[in-house]
Amino acid sequence: MCGRFAFYSPSEAAVALFGVSTSIAIEPRYNIAPTQFLAAVRNDDNQQRELVMLRWGLVPFWAKDPSIGNRMINARAETVAEKPSYRAAYRHRRCVVLADGFYEWQREGDTKTPYFISLANGSPFALAGLWENWTDKESGESLQTTTLITTAANDFMTPLHHRMPVILESGTAGEWLAGSNDMLDDVAAITPALQAWPVDRRVNNARNEGADLINSVGDILR
Questions:
Q1: If exposure means fewest CB atoms within 10 Å of the residue's CB, which of 24, 38, 86, 189 is most exposed?
Q2: DSSP label at 186?
Q3: 3-state secondary structure of 185
Q4: Which listed residue (2, 95, 132, 209) is catalytic?
Q5: CATH superfamily of 5-214
Q6: Which DSSP string corresponds to 131-164?
Q7: Handedness of CA 79, 152, 175, 52 (dihedral sign)
Q8: 95 catalytic per annotation
Q9: Nearest residue to 26 via CA among 15, 201, 78
């Protein structure tokens, strides 16, 4: 799964990499957790890219209670096209979530060690996602939410965890947003080179924040 990540590059990085204009000031974040808002790129009604803030944890448009989103932070690539909770969004409401890295926990006996994983070249990237618009029937208020697509771990990630998010660079992000139905079958081929290093366990607490959370406390894996 993918349950924590970071995006701290300047907002201008979104413009340069993903071809969006932005008036949104994105605060650097080093410990983004479910139910929090994150920066994402999607196509608007005119098929122009826009930068938006979405709450992490997808709430299907048909849901009676938005709390269902707390359990829907990830969607499996293997079943996302068919599952009732995700299939409409898969067909019509795709997005990419901006990231500089994500965290995974490696189990060593009874201990779990957090690792920060980023592109080997250190550039920001995108995580394949879906978004939904949910409306409260009583108040009329709307809530826009997102989920991240995960897949089986590649050779690099397998020692850390058996799942990983679908990682996209600028070119492949465009294909995902355009509705390519073959991309999730080719994840291993499109995943760029990664690096990882162990970090302090303070990242386990979602209330902790700051650049020091991604500091290495051990060897870098490449």
A1: 189
A2: S
A3: helix
A4: 2
A5: SOS response associated peptidase-like (3.90.1680.10)
A6: EEEEE-TTT--EEEEEEEEEEE--TTTTTT-SEE
A7: positive
A8: no
A9: 15
CA 76, distance to chain mean position in Å, is: 13
Q: Identify the H or E element spanning 176.
A: helix 170-178
Task: Report which residue type is found at 59.
Answer: V
Catalytic annotation on 138? Answer: no
Using alpha carbons, select from 95, 73, 122, 100 the residue that is nearest to residue 11. Answer: 100
Domain residue limits, the chain:
5-214
pLDDT class for 119, splitting at 50, 70, 90?
very high
What DSSP designation does 45 have? T
Query: pTM above the 0.90 mark?
Result: yes
Catalytic residue, chosen from 50, 82, 104, 132, is: 104
- pLDDT for 158-188, tens place per residue? 999 999 999 999 889 999 999 988 889 888 7
Q: Which residues contact 117 (CB under 8 A, 6 or more apart)?
A: 101, 102, 103, 104, 157, 160, 194, 195, 196
